[in-house]
Amino acid sequence: MYNLFVPCSTSILLGSLVANLSAANCYKADHLKKPENWALVEKAKYYYIAGFFLTVSPESIQLVAEHAVANNKVFMMNLSAPFICEFFRDAQEKALPYMDYVFGNETEAKTFSKVHGWQTDNVEEIALKISQWPKASGTHKRITVITQGADPVVVAEDGKVKLFPVILLPKEKLVDTNGAGDAFVGGFLSQLILEKPIEDCVRAGCYAANVVIQRSGCTCPEKPDFN
Ligand SMILES: Nc1ncnc2c1ncn2[C@@H]1O[C@H](COP(=O)(O)OP(=O)(O)OP(=O)(O)O)[C@@H](O)[C@H]1O
Ligand SMILES: *[C@@H]1O[C@H](CO)[C@@H](O)[C@H](O)[C@H]1NC(C)=O
Ligand SMILES: *[C@@H]1O[C@H](CO)[C@@H](O)[C@H](O)[C@H]1NC(C)=O
Question: From CA 226, how far away is CA 30, in angstroms rounded?
């Protein structure tokens, strides 16, 4: 079932996925427009594109984003890295109005704030401002989700901020935090596409991240025990 469309190979721990068209850096919009590839776009209802893709093919992002808005589907990106916010600012700004969900970590959020001259380092305030950035479609609101390592996950929507504590982990069990952000988004999306409430999405995100940081590399056990 191609319910969720992820154009780069970023995804882990997703239940029902995924169209992996190409992870190559030479990805071109022409490739996306090929009927067999565009068919996957049309089939999906949710799109998640990592911000890094802005460095590869902003045109492809635009195509998918416009399709999502025109068809009332859900378009999501992450901020990906501070350098994306700084050096791909224009491309990111162009995509932002289409985003229904924005994911990021605290460093990326602060960089985004700095780049836009918001003069605040307060992650809750930044998340709120990102969620209130103008939208291309009136049908979905924007939800901003910022992770902060061991500190609570910040979720901004409808002019309000909610904090969700993560699953705390004793130091000796923390093996490798690489991929924590991706695992979080993977877990989050696994519930979102089941149309679960945001609380469940965050809980699954934290669960997935918690599993991944207790292992070396970005791996997961054969059988998850999330419920
Ligand atoms: N020290 C920690 N203790 C408990 N949970 C953690 C810790 N670090 C990360 N996590 C979990 O992982 C999630 C994402 O973490 P973080 O904000 O560090 O992402 P990130 O910086 O994008 O990660 P990376 O870039 O390494 O993939 C957190 O919301 C939390 O659920
Ligand atoms: C957030 O992610 C970036 C990579 O995008 C990383 O450099 C930074 O250390 C992360 N911040 C925290 C607080 O983990
Ligand atoms: C954003 O996506 C990139 C690429 O998949 C990943 O490395 C990063 O950890 C993600 N960050 C967050 C906070 O989701």
Answer: 40
Q: Give the closest residue to 101 by CA, choosing from 75, 63, 81.
A: 75
| Cα 217 to Cα 176: distance, rounded to the nearest angstrom | 7
Which protein residue has the closest C-alpha to ligand 2 atom 7? 81
List residues with catalytic annotation: 182
Here the CATH number for the domain that contains residue 41 is 3.40.1190.20
Distance CA 41, CA 222 (A): 29
- Nearest CA owner, ligand 3 atom 1: 80
Q: What is the pTM of this model?
A: 0.90
Q: Which regions in the chain score pLDDT beneath 50?
A: 1-2, 8-24
Task: Name the residue at shortest CA distance from atom 20 of ligand 1.
Answer: 181
Q: How far is the CA of 9 from the centre of ligand 2 (A)?
A: 20
Tell me the per-residue pLDDT of 170-211, one tens digit each, with 9 for 90 and over: 999 999 998 899 999 999 999 999 999 999 999 999 999 999
d(CA 132, ligand 2 centre) in Å: 23
With a CB cutoff of 8 Å and minimum separation 6, the contacts of 225 are none
Q: What range does the domain containing 17 cover?
A: 4-163
